[in-house]
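User: For my dataset I need records formatted as: sequence, then structure tokens, nothing else. Please produce one.
Assistant:
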Amino acid sequence: MGLDLPPFNGLRLFEAAARCGSFKRAAQELNLTSGAISHGIKSLEDWLGVELFDRSRELALTPAGQHYLPYVKEALSMIAKGTSEILARSGNGYDAAAAAVGFIAQTELPSNR
């Protein structure tokens, strides 16, 4: 049985907007538009069936958003830690450089003709 997880991108956008205190600052940090942040968070809210932000005045977390944020932060932190560890491994297991070379070799690059 698979895990029923919300869209990863929505979680990332939610965490950034909550930490930055605005969609605009989160957008600047993530190199996206404010609209993309708003749309991604709205999709996450629709998936969850709850509002995470109160948009009636300055951007503020709802009680549901306040409850959810520590879980999202911890999950993203664990993913970042695991990714960092696996990329740091060499020789014994996953070799990031070999994987990158393999990926590039399989990717069609545009010619400069």
